[in-house]
Design goal:
alpha/beta, 6 strands, 9 helices, 201 residues, Rossmann fold
């Protein structure tokens, strides 16, 4: 990595690294929807979060949220319910165990609840970045072709510089992960977690 990063104007932003996605007792774990590639992400990203904070940077966690509706049934998009029929009451609900950031990374400096793929869509993320005068975000999390890609593209539209962690994000299908990295390469630098750590040091 050749570009210089000002840590004090930089945030690490992780997407959806929550118990309901990663913990065996979370919604996806109970449904048998697991991935070793995804499970490995928190331990790979943690040293980067520690290093960035030590240099005066910020760690923001964006967390997928299913807002409880009538009788606590989640307000869930029809396409998502079709894709993930196992999601139900209490899953990804604010304040619940499954909604929380995984222990390896908790606590974040700021938490953003998101109801769709992008961490910018109808959230307070952009407000936080502008208020802290952050102009660069280092992005990791899941899934590469969903929340990660949507967030990177939305940052690009807002003239917020991104750096995407190639091994700090993952998808359930490795081929889809690889194809998405190729696609995003036109709008963001893509580096490994170790390269980013070296740049910060």
């Amino acid at each position: 990595m050749t570009e210089e990063i000002d840590p004090k104007r930089t945030a690490l932003l992780t997407i959806d690294l929550q118990n309901d996605f990663l913990h065996p007792k979370g919604a996806y774990g109970r449904a048998g929807q697991t991935s070793d590639l995804i499970s490995a992400l928190p331990s790979r990203i943690k040293p980067l979060a520690t290093a960035l904070r030590a240099k005066g940077g910020t760690y923001i966690s964006a967390q997928f949220t299913l807002v409880p509706g009538p009788e606590e049934e989640p307000l869930i998009a029809p396409h998502l319910k079709k894709l993930r029929p196992f999601l139900g009451k209490g899953d990804f609900a604010p304040g619940a165990f499954g909604h929380a950031l995984v222990d390896d990374l908790a606590p974040a400096d700021y938490t953003v609840e998101k109801v769709a793929y992008s961490a910018f869509y109808q959230t307070r993320l952009e407000y936080i970045l502008r208020a802290l005068e952050i102009d660069t975000i280092i992005v990791g999390g899941i899934v590469t072709n969903g929340g990660v890609a949507s967030t990177v593209r939305d940052a690009h539209l807002r003239n917020i510089h991104t750096v995407l962690l190639s091994d700090g994000c993952a998808a359930f299908n490795p081929d889809v992960h690889d194809a998405t990295l190729i696609s995003l390469g036109s709008i963001t630098p893509i580096v490994t977690c170790s390269e980013m750590l070296e740049a910060l040091s």
